[in-house]
Amino acid sequence: MSLIVQKFGGTSLADAEKIHRAARRAIRSKLGGQRVVIVVSAMGKTTDQLIALSAAISSDPPKRELDMLLATGEQVSIALMAMAIHAAGHEAISLTGAQLGLVTDSMHTRARIQRISRDRLDRELDAGKIVIVAGFQGIDSSGELTTLGRGASDTTAAALAATLGAEICEINTDVDGVYTADPRRVPLARKIDEISYDEMLELAAAGAGVMHSRAIEFGKKYNVPIHVRNSLTDEKGTMVMAETPGMEAVSVRGVTLREGVAAISLSGVPSKSGVAAKIFRAVAERDVLVDDIVQSIYDNRRLAHVAFVVAAEDAEETGAVCRTIAADLGIERVEVEADVSKLSVVGVGMRSHSGIAAKMFDALAAKGINIQNISTSEIVLSCVVRSKDGLAALQALHAAFDLDKPPTTHEV
Ligand code: ADP
Ligand code: ASP
Ligand code: MG
Question: With 127 labelled, which of 201, 227, 264, 390 sits at a CA distance of 20 to 30 A?
Answer without folding.
Answer: 227
